[in-house]
Each structure stands twice: as structure tokens, then as C-alpha cells.
Amino acid sequence: MTTGTLRLRKGSSILSENGSLIGLVVLLVALTLLSGDFLTVTNLLNVGVQAAVTAILAFGQTFVIITSGIDLSVGAVAALSAVVLAWTATSHGMAWPLATGFALIVGIACGLVNGALITYGKLPPFIATLAMQGIARGLGLVISQGSPIALPDSVSHVGDTIGGYLPVPAIVMLLMGVITAVVLNRTYAGRAMYAIGGNEEAARLSGIKVTRQKLITYALAGGFAAVAGIVLAGRLASAQPQAALGYELDAIAAVVIGGASLSGGKGKALGTFVGALILAVLRNGLNLLSVSAFWQQVVIGIVIALAVLLDTLRRRQAS
Amino acid sequence: MTEEILRVRGLRKRFPGVVALDGVDFDLRPGEVHVLLGENGAGKSTLIKMLSGAYHPDEGTIFMDGRETAIRTAEDAQRHGIATIYQEFNLVPQLTVAENLMLGRPPRRFGFVDKKAMYRHAQELLDRVGVDADPRAPLASLGIARMQMVEIAKALGLDARVLIMDEPTAVLTTSEVQRLFTIVRQLKEQGVAIVFITHHLEEIAQIGDRVTVLRDGASVAEVPADTPEEELVRLMVGRSIDQQYPRERSTQGAPLLEVRGLTRKGVFEDVSFEVRAGEVVGLAGLVGAGRTEVVRAIFGADPYDSGEVLVDGLPLPRGKVTAALEAGLGLVPEDRKGQGLVLGANIRENLGLVTMRRATHGGFVDRAGQAKAAAEVAEQLGVRMSGLGQEVRTLSGGNQQKIVIGKWLLAEANVLILDEPTRGIDVGAKVEIYQLINSLTAAGRAVLMISSDLPEVLGMSDRVLVMARGRLAGELSAAEATQDSVMALAVGELEETA
Ligand SMILES: Nc1ncnc2c1ncn2[C@@H]1O[C@H](COP(=O)(O)OP(=O)(O)OP(=O)(O)O)[C@@H](O)[C@H]1O
Ligand SMILES: [Mg+2]
């Protein structure tokens, strides 16, 4: 009897450890059965493209959430970076590598300001990044004077495919995912994020420079947001100051579905990736099944609630 | 013989990778103090957590008043009149002392919390245990010893029939311990049954009636509390310990740490001393004397107003932990849960926390090297674990403490400050730690040790500093330092100013 319960417990722990991955598989199987259009190469690549922007934002968000912070500005920063890219490339005629670099710097700078407000200013992350959301969105509108800026051809290649097949956004997404995994697992910055999120005081007393590491964390989130903005602009072939509206919430949802804890110290690149895929697959599938956009929101809300419930359940089991 | 109030038969509990309890029999009578004794990780806390409804047994039965009972939740336990003082405390640092004392049952008027009544009742509870703490203060502002007193007061407020105390004396000094024992004796007279866990063997004969010894999760003996300590040790660790305090004095060198006129207004004043290479300096005093505050200031964890700290003759900037670390200081903090450990991270990660910077090259951490070092120190300290990947949260209290010490051993600090280093560590493992302290000083390093365990201070220090009311009350050489001379200094100043 005891070996039985033991085995059962082990089984359920594997399930909850990889709950989101299993959820994704179930979703894939269900959609394959429900819609003949789902499991096609074109559609799957399409899902990849749709997932890309959210996933890249979510990777950046993962760093922040692991330190038990939150970044509400990533959507707005993405839009601002895109606008800066288009603006410098068109009105200033900058070459695309330079314009891209400039857009990245803007994203990182926004992140650094977030970090400074949180560490030196002692603002709660929620408030600091909410303020940045307004600032970045506003600056984007100011620079673009409220209307989309078309990207010059040289830049809009980010939305293209390689060999007419592999979509660049999906490749960038995978690349950023790998970078996230490496940063989190292998680098000092990544390990410090876990320590700070797990117990900030213990981290400080162990000689981790908490202020500096938090600045790095928010700067990374800002940089990732800029990359997402560039990818988005490439896809749309133009920079729109109102793009990526509310994407920060999708990003947070992806991170949480992926098994990170909003109280910090937990989270993985792979989990976030799966979380972002779940959201994208769900949206794509619901579209294929012609579910109305209104109902889609309801379904996605339920999925987020379920994912977090699973997480709570897992934690209760652990204690 | 009185009827048993609680009886436990054949209790078993497994966790992933470990068998925590492997057949425990135990019983408890009204009006007795039943001591649970066992090494770190023997299963004491797991046993009592099954009586308080925190864990459920895989096998075995619990009888209350002779009837088979399932204690599934904390409410169940409360209904049976069982109150528990947890080793790791069951308190919320962000709330006030009063809110913690009344957690889950604040006095109400018209559906609102009656704050006045809450503070009054809280003050009564605090007075009962004799702790000097403001009920309105946030719990986090109390040191670990006063938190312990709050945890005790909270359990007393429940008017239980069965009171379980998991290492209540681990961080208390002699006077608080005596106060606690007075309360325990009163409760005994009222017929309360008490389960008492401690690693301080001398307390057993003082307060206990019977002792149940746990070894590797099984109850191996039940003996009267006046059993000689050597016999208890043998039952507990399976061998005898020749020397509890194996201090080997080393030759002393130049001063490594110099503290001059350190002052923080209202906390400590004009504290000056030095610690030499090869020396173990003990820092004794009552709870609230300011010992922890002083060492935290030295280490840069807290600011100070005036004075100077020199390491190796070089002044240290104020309030900079990283500078202190680079200069060769290390601090094992008193509060392992709040300040020492990342509970959600595993053993390997926690052990590598201080050395991570050094193990980083080009931004990348040498994880293999970190893992190897962690494995070695865990082995050296005899950490009882399922593997280096075990989450620290699930380690037993004493084993968690070993991780905090291990983390700082790996850091190879030149001056290691230990604040209650052996809190919750069993007698056998203590000797291992003392041995490690010996090898540190033999290698020309210095140790500054705060401990509320006076025999430990006396047994291990080459020199004892005594603090009272935020000031250094005196300094005693190893020969001069006795229980009485230290206590006289610790209390003396108090009476003068009172
Ligand atoms: N939630 C858990 N998950 C996994 N293992 C656990 C858990 N709780 C306890 N253990 C393991 O069970 C064993 C017994 O632990 P327990 O806390 O009961 O020891 P203890 O006798 O109280 O020791 P100490 O004197 O150090 O407090 C330990 O090996 C511990 O690692
Ligand atoms: Mg214990």
C-alpha cells in the first residue's frame, strides 16, 4: 500500500513539475483532432511567428519575475523602440545596424531607469514600471506624432523568412530563448537573480550587490523588449506607436503559466517558452475553430487561472 | 499512574528521497515534560508536525485520550487542545508583534478587530514570558531571541492541554531559559502535558520527566530524565563523545580585526576591541545587549554613527557588505531563515552563494567547481540530506544551520564572525564544528563568536567579551571566565543603571 502511494506521489510530482508542457501537448493533440488546418507546416510556422513577440517579451519578464519584481512597461518599451528604429532609419537615414543598435539602447535605457527608480528611488516595481509604461508609450507617440512610420526596406527584413521558409521572428525568438536559458543557468547575473528573488537579505549578506544586479535585470528586460519591438515592426513593416498594447500582461501570463512564481526565486526559460507557446497555440486554435474574439479572452483568462491553480497545488504538495 | 493523554504507535513518514520516520512509539501523560532527543534529522520535528496537523503519517496511529484520532489540519490539533511552538517559527515578519500573537483569532467588536483589546491582551502575553517588546512593533524588528519568546507567548495564549515545544531554548540565554522553565513548571502543575525538544542536554534533567530517544527516524529508547548525559549521548548518536569542547589554543598573531569606539545611537556605544590571528573571542551577554547589532555593523550589514573598523590594519568603509567581504570578513547570521538561507533554493546553490563571485570568470559561473566544493563541505559537516539538489526548506533545522556555516567555511574568511553558530545543532555535530573552528585558528585565522550557550562560550573562547546594555561591560581571559563572572558582568551593569 505504501509503495502504491509512493509511486502515485512520484507520478503526480512529475506531472506538476512539467504541468505546462503536458498542457501544451494536450492542447496540440486536441487541436489536431478538432481542426484539419492546425497541424500543417504553414500554420505551425504561423504560430511561431505569432508567439515570437510575446515570447521575447516574456523571456525578459522572466528575469524580472525571478527577482520577485514585475515589469509592466515592456509592451510600451517595445513600441517605443520600434518607433525609434523607424524614425532614425527614415528621418535620419541611419543604416539599419546603427538604427537597430539605437533602438536597443533606448530599450536598455528604459530598463535602467526602471531599475534606478526601484533600487535608488525605492519605488515598488509595480509603480515604477507603470510610470515607465506611460512615459515610453507617450514618447513613442511624441516621436511618431501619433502615426505609424513605415520601415525602409532595408530594415523590414526582420519580418521576412530565410529561404522563403524559416520565419525570422521565430528564429529570433529561439535565439533569445537560448540566451535567456544561458543567462539564467550559467551566468553570475542569472544565479544572483534567483538568490535575490528567493531571499534578498540573505543575498545581500552573501555579498551579492543587490542594487547592481537589479539594474542589470531590468536593463535586460528593457533590451529584450526592444528586440521584441524590432521584430514586431519588421512583421508589420512599420512602427506603430500604439503597437504591443497590453502585451506586458501576455508576457507575465506566459511566465506564470511556465511555472515561475510571482513571489520570486523560481522560473525557467523553457517554462516561459512553453507558456508563450500555449497562449499562441490557443489563440491560433480558437481562430481556426472560429471562436469569437470575445470568447477567446474568456478562454485565455481561464487558462491563466488554471495554470496558477496548478502552481499553488504544487507548492502545497511540496510543503 | 495518570491516564495517557496522547499515544503514538508505529508512525512512519516518507519524503521524496528520505524516510523521515520509521516506526515511532511515543506517549504523553498530563503534567509531565516528555523530552524528545535525537540527532539533526532524526525526525523530531517531523513527529511533532504530525501531532500539530502539518503533516500526515503514511502509517501508524495516533490516540488522543485513548481514542484513535486523525489530526488532519491545524484546526483539528487546536480542537484537541494541542498547541505548538515551531522550531522555524510560525510568525509573519511583516505584521506587528500583537497581530502575530493573535494570529487568526484577533479580538473583535462589531465585526471589526478591536485593536485596543488586541494590544492589551498581547501585552499580557508578553509580560507572562517576561519579554521586553512593544506589541505595536513589527515582528521583523525583533532579534531572533525575542522572536522566539513571541512564538512561545503565542502558544501559551492558546491555553492548550498539550504543549509542544520544538527547541524553544536554542537561542535563549540562561536567564530567559530559567524564566521559561518557571512557566513550564506552572503549566505542569495545571496538568498540561508538554513535549520538549532540545539539544542542550543539561536542560533535560532540569525540566524533563521522561526522554524518548529517536535515531534515524525510529524511537530507540525511553529513559528517565535523570539518566546521565553520557548515556543519553550514547543512545542518541550511538557512540560516546569524549570532549564536548575540544578547543586547541593556537599561537596568536597580529590583530586581524580592530574595532574602535563603535557607536550607533540608542543601540550600542563606544565598543572597542580587537581579535587577533589564531584567536577565538567569545561575545557574551543577555538577549538585547546589542551583540548582534555590533557584529552586523562591523560586517556592514547595518550602518553606525561613529567609530572605526579595521581589518588587517586597513579601515573598512561603513555599511558595505561587499567591502567587508573583500577585506576578508565573514558573518554567519543568527537568523538562518531570514538572513542566512535562500529556502527555496537547493543545498548546492546555498553553499555556493558567497563563493559564486570568486567562481565567476567572464560572467560565467564555474558550476562544476561549485558543486564539488559544496559536496566536500556538506560531507565535512555531516549534512543529512537526500542529495545536494534537495531544497533547503525541507532540511531539518540543524542541517539548515550547517548549510549557513558551510557557506561561510567555503568563503575562507580571514575573520569569521559567528552569531549563534550552533543554534539547533546536535551534540555530535557541534564537536565537528568546534574542530573546524580549531583548524581555522590553527591556520592563522580569527573567530569572533556570539553565543547564548554559555558553556559553549566558556569552552571555546580564548577570551570573553561581555556586553550589557549596548556597552562592553568587561573582558575576561579564558582563565577568569566562568559562568558566574560572565553573568556578573552581563547583569551587573543592568542593576547599576536601574
Ligand atoms: N518536507 C520535507 N521534504 C523532504 N524531506 C523532509 C521534509 N521534512 C523533513 N524532511 C527530512 O526528514 C528528516 C527528518 O527531519 P526533522 O526535521 O524531523 O529532523 P529533526 O529531528 O527535527 O532535526 P533537527 O534536530 O535538525 O531539528 C530530515 O532528513 C529531513 O531532511
Ligand atoms: Mg527539528
Could you explain the architecture of this structure?
Chain A is mainly alpha-helical and about 325 residues long. Chain A has one domain (about 20-310): Orthogonal Bundle (ABC transporter involved in vitamin B12 uptake, BtuC), CATH 1.10.3470. Chain A has helices at about 1-15, 20-35, 40-65, 75-90, 95-120, 125-145, 170-185, 190-200, 200-205, 210-235, 245-255, 270-290, 295-319; strands spanning about 150, 160, 165, 240. In chain A, the strands form 2 sheets. In chain A, strands 1-4 form a two-stranded antiparallel ribbon. A two-stranded antiparallel sheet of chain A has the order 2-3. In chain A, helix 4 crosses helix 10 (about 210-235), helix 5 (about 95-120) packs antiparallel against helix 6 (about 125-145) and helix 11 packs parallel to helix 13 (about 295-320). Chain A is globular. Residues about 1-15 of chain A have low confidence and may be disordered. With about 500 residues, chain B is α/β, with parallel strands linked by helices. Helices cover about 35% and strands about 25% of the residues of chain B. Chain B contains 17 helices and 24 strands. In chain B, helix 15 links the parallel strand 21 and strand 22 (about 445-450). In chain B, helix 13 (about 365-380) crosses helix 14 (about 395-410). The interface of A and B includes residues 2, 5, 188, 203 and 206 of A. Adenosine-5'-triphosphate (ATP) binds near residues 38, 87 and 399 of chain B. Adenosine-5'-triphosphate binds near residues 43, 45, 87 and 397 of chain B.
